[in-house]
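Archive maintenance. Older records in this collection stored only the sequence; we are now back-filling the structure field for every entry so that each record is complete. The fields below show one back-filled record exactly as it appears after the update. Entries are processed alphabetically, and Cobalt ABC transporter permease is next in the queue.

ARCHIVE ENTRY
Title: Cobalt ABC transporter permease
Organism field: Pseudooceanicola antarcticus
Length field: 195
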Amino acid sequence: MIRALMIAALCALPLPALAHKVIASVFPSGSAIEGEVGFSNGAMAVGQEVQVFGPDGALLGRVLTDDDGFFLFTPTEPVAHRFRADLGAGHVANVTMEAAEVARILGTTPAAPAGDGTPAGDTGPTGAPASAAGFSAAQQAEIAQMLRDELRPLRREIAAYRERNDLQSILGGIGYIVGLFGLGFYLAARRRLKD
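Back-filled structure field:
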């Protein structure tokens, strides 16, 4: 009887889903926004269209991911940018870069929300130095590209680490639940033996 109850309890427990999650991230990259789209199992979205929306839902542009699942979008307005990619089978990537961060990329101040009394789009330079440490624009672009290429694997490793730790936490939680059920059945069996 106890064995049958234990087997029934084990069968009734939810198992961790072995599916993969969508990974999407965006970050500043010089005068552009770089992002990546893929899955937690390491498969990246190659040649995937990414739509870019403003805070009002208006389409600001479209880009395609490269062979590594990365894309590059050059913003024109200091507003929040929402990036959306439909990967099929119910997998949708959504990630947003806030207006303040976009404004830093553009070297402006973010546009004020409509209706607050301040003129929208009143932007100006932030006073950033024209050239960093005497490098030309071409040298700065080359250094930025090298940094992007070096940081890509690190970003993927961090995402994989987060995913692996999430799975370990889920499996650990299931282990505790099974252990509590086992303890409960053990105590119930001891009571029956005493009776």
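Update note: The first strand starts at residue 22 and ends at 29. The beta strands are 22-29, 32-39, 49-53, 59-64, 70-73, 81-88, 91-97.
Entry marked complete.
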